[in-house]
Amino acid sequence: MSYPELDWRASFQQDFKARKSLFEASLLSRKSIRLSISPTIFSDSILSQKVSRSNKFQFISRLIPNLSEVAQLEAILWRNGINKDQLTQLDPLPQLISTESFLPLEWFDDYDYDPMSVERWLSIEDLKGFALVQDFESREWTWTPVCVVDYDADKLRWIVEVGGQVWEIPRIRLYLLYEDPGQYSKRILFAVEQRNYAENYLRYSYLSRLVDVGEYFEMIESTRDRLIERSSPDVFEAFNAVYRRFHIGLSMNVCLEQNEWLNIQPVHMVCYKSLPFCVDELRALYSLGERFALIKRIILLSHPAVYNALRLVHYECDVVREMSLFVTEFPEPQTLAAFKEANEEQLGKVMQYLQNAWIERTTMQVHKSLLNVGRGWFNISITSWTIYQFMKLYRLVEQIKHRMQAALRDLVLTSTDVFCHRLCDPCELTLPIDENYSWEGSLIESPFESGKTPVFYLLLHMGEQAPYFSTDPDEFLPCLETLFVEFVEQTHDVHLIDPSLFGSLIFAPNLFLSSMGLRDPTIWGRRDHLRMSYRQCVIPLKAYATRYTEFKTLFFTNITEYVEEVKSTKTSLQVKEEISLQIRMRESLERTLPLSIVIGSFWIDVLPLRTALIQKRADLTAALLKMLTERLRDKTSDIVFDYNEIIERMCEKPASIEHIYEIREFMDTIPELLQQLEERMKTVVFEYEILDHFRYALPDADFYQKWTALGMPKAILNQIESVHEFHEGEVDKFRKQQVSDEAGFASRVEEINVHISKFTTVYDVAKVTEVSIEVKKLWKTINELFQYGETLNKRQELFEMAAIDLSSLVELKESFVGYKNMWIFAAEYSNVEESWRKNPISSVETEVVARTLFHYKKCFGDLLDPFEDQPQIQNVIRTFLARVEQFEPHIAIIELLQHPLLEPIHWNQLAKAAGIKVKLSVAANFELFLENHIEQHSELLRDIIAKAEEQKEELERIKAAEEEERRKVEEFNKNRELRRLKRTEI
User: Fold this and answer.
1) N or C: which end of the chain has fewer CB within 10 A?
2) Could you give the count of Cα atoms lying within 13 Å of 786 in the half-sphere of its Cβ?
């Protein structure tokens, strides 16, 4: 069930807008300023009322100001009952039952009160007046002296200047100093009177349409039938309309006279004047009291409490309309997570208000308004469902429900509209592209920047596989669509006010206000537009990221490896070209990469990646320059090192005359060496110019090293002369030292000769070790003296002196050779034989023993002849030769003891047979066997070894027989198994 009065306010405002357009059209026609709107608004009796020209006309003979101060005008207006509110204050939302004005007063201005035309007024030089204007800061309206500048005929506005500011003022708020202030007051009063009547008629006209429902004001059937028979359908419809309007007007006037709270004055229609009888007779004839009772039963506005309740409900609904389900305006672009979080928080707040505060406040306002109405149509204490459904209260609650639903739907429509426009408008330019789109243009200029503020923030990163964004672009569409769907769906969870308003009635728990559904064409279209916009918008987004793949190699370049490769493969000129390339590429990055870029609704932050790439180019450049610097440092360091070596060798303090001659020979080669080093330095200086080309500041140490290397040749040449002078003095000193050394040498030769003579009389074999050590010392001393003598002879030659005679020293050395060899061979053999005796049998190698014995036997044999005339020394030699020959038979015994078949049992048998009481094994040393006279039991040892070999052969024979027997058994078992299988198959 629906009722015409359910949306009375919205309809009234719509009607007000339509009638406002009529007023504006009337004003722009520049006809008489008296209100000339449609006859449906004002009766002809009012429009026909003429004000005589003598009451309005002003004759201005001389241009003399009638007023000089604003206070005078304000006093006159006050005496005539005019205040500033009548000219300025307007109700922005017209009320059906209100005394507030909602039509601008200038619409009702009568230009007949103007004493002169606009052209005549503007012809007056320096035309002044008083205008009612609003102060920007205080927002208060004040009368202010102004100077008239011009007139806008299209807007019907006078252009005035106030304190350097220009205003557009309607004539009703402008008093010109040459006109009569009394007439100006009448002009305002006339406009106020006309506006009051117009506003009253608008309210009256709309209230009449609220009553015009159903068949309550139809003519009786007999009259209708007669009219239909006697006239055409068009005539009948016209008469029926006049008839309904006439009776509704009569009924409305009675209703308004008896209900002063409605603040609407009765309007007497034009047809009253042409009736042959008075209106009072009509009231009696048609029983208008019954008609009024009928109106009261039809219309909801039969009690001030109802109007107040609807007014408060409308206010609460307007609060909801002003809300928003989404948050779309941010001071700066947001990440998807922040956008989602902010909107979810906003939805939580809005739904908290809708599900709790809105229902509670609306219920409280309605309950508070209807609480004191009492029994009747609007008794909120009703307990019967049947009665409730026939009450006006039911219709009132239904109207409130529809109003709340309308507000809820307006909220959804407005919120989704703002949401879609805010999110989709920046994506408009991406809609025509296809899925295969690739970003071919500049990386700085975006063809998809619509000029609207982007919504989302993305940070561009460089990944190992490909560039990527801080948020995956494919996540936006599902997230935004989910937000859109969930937010619309949640608006269906707002309860009706019925259960909370009527405590005596029982309602179902699932009564909710109806909101916009997802299948609604508007919502579906917006959702589809959102889906399409973001499906398209991510295409250029991905294409833009793909363009940065060309920088992946640069981003992940290892600076150390890169520098090492350049260092090992390229020359200095090629390094220069590589540095120039890196600089050009860095400048190219600065020109071609943006700080940020807008693609559709996305604001992409490229600054970190751009900075990283530019920095990588700068780091590569710096690394190459550093590498080149290090290379030059090493080269320069090598050259400086060579220079220092020259200086060090040249400036060495000579230790001898040979050293002086060596330094002099080196100094003769210095000029050539310097020339070679200077050539090398020229190449290095050329490479230093590469660094200068790039304006690279050398470290202080490298700078000083470079200039040190350049100045070294001159310093070395200057120092050669001083070195020569120094050497002259050193030669004299060494000549004196040579004489002293020569005398000392002769003395040392004599001393060593005496010492050797005494030492050769030693023949004690027991002291072989001590004697061999002393012999080695003497031999070393003889060699040192011999070398020293040769050195002295070389110096003698350098000093141009006679050579020293070394023949006695040579004879001494030759005579001592045999003696030295005898004692050294003796000591060595004693040590070797000792090791054979003390080491385990298993570690003695008989082949090595045999070779060693042969060597020492030959050595001792060769020493017998030189000492033919010295029998004591020959006795010593023969002693050691006998020891060698005595040990030779032991080789065979050692080989028997090392036989691999000897087991512990065999060792026990040997020990028992030989009477040896200690445990024998291959780990025992040979000395043990010698102490127990093992050579006497060699035959026993051979027998034990022979028996061991026989036992081994017998054991191998037994094992072979057992293996043969096992093989035969396995073969027999195998054949038997085969025969069994063959029987089974049969």
Assistant:
1) C
2) 14
Return d(Cα 962, Cα 701) in angstroms, integer: 90
Query: What Rg value do the Cα atoms of the chain yield, rounded?
Result: 65
For the cut 70, the answer to whether the pLDDT of residue 468 exceeds it is: yes
Q: Which amino acid is at 540?
A: P
Tokens at 199, concatenated: 């506003």
What is the per-residue pLDDT across 633-649, written as a single tens digit (0 to 9) for each?
888 888 888 888 888 88
pLDDT at position 216 is 61
Residue with tokens 């932050």: 605
Q: Which two tokens stand for residue 762?
A: 């030693």
609: enclosing H helix or E strand: helix 607-651
Q: Spell out the alpha helix ranges (H) of 217-261.
A: 221-230, 233-258
Q: What is the rounded distance in angstroms from the CA atom of residue 690 to the CA atom of residue 703?
A: 14
Least confident of 346-355, 481-490, 742-751, 824-833: 742-751
Please indicate whether residue 67 or residue 299 has the higher confidence score (pLDDT): 67
Distance CA 233, CA 237 (A): 6
- The pLDDT assigned to 9 comes to 44
CB environment 112-140: b (16+ within 10 A), e (fewer): bbbbeeeeebeeeeebebbbbbeeeeeee
One-letter amino acid at 416 equals: T
- In order, the DSSP letters of 122-157 are HTSTT-EEEEEEE-TTT--EEEEEEEEEEEETTTTE
Cα–Cα distance measured from residue 51 to residue 358, given in angstroms and rounded to the nearest whole number:
54
Closest CA to 460 of 582, 611, 618, 329: 611
Min mean pLDDT across 215-229, 271-285, 444-458, 929-943 is at 271-285
Lowest mean pLDDT, pick from 37-51, 161-175, 311-325 = 37-51
Q: What is the number of residues in the chain?
A: 986
Q: Look at the alpha carbons of 21, 25, 31, 37 in this order and tell me if their dihedral is positive or negative.
A: negative
Phi, psi of 102 (to 5 degrees): -130, 0
Task: Mention every residue, 6+ apart, whose C-beta is less than 8 A from residue 233.
Answer: none
Comparing CA positions, the residue from 177, 124, 179, 186 lying closest to residue 150 is 124
In three-state secondary structure terms, 447 is coil
- Single out the residue of 890, 927, 931 nearest to residue 914, CA to CA: 931
Distance CA 850, CA 834 (A): 15
Cα–Cα distance for residue pair 701/636, rounded to 1 Å: 11
- What integer is the mean pLDDT of 455-461? 94
Give tens-digit pLDDT for 83-104: 888 888 776 655 566 677 878 8
Residue 655: which of 734, 549, 559 has the closest Cα? 734
CA-CA distances (angstroms) from residue 480 to 420, 528, 848, 850? 10, 12, 95, 101
User: In which order are the strands placed within the sheet that holds 174-176?
Assistant: 165-169, 157-162, 141-152, 128-134, 174-176
Q: Tell me the sheet residues that pair with 158.
A: 151, 169
Whole-number pLDDT of residue 31: 35
Q: Supply φ then ψ for residue 123, to 5 degrees.
A: -75, -15
* Cβ–Cβ under 8 Å, residues 229 and 208: no
Q: Determine how many CB atoms are found less than 10 A away from the CB of residue 855.
A: 15
C-alpha 380/C-alpha 383 separation (Å) is 9
The token duo for 885 is 């020959």
Task: Inform me whether the pLDDT recorded for 410 exceeds 90.
Answer: yes
- Compute the Cα dihedral for 128, 129, 135, 138 and give only its sign: positive
* Among 841, 845, 839, 835, residue whose Cα is nearest residue 902: 841
- Quick one: which H or E segment has residue 445? none
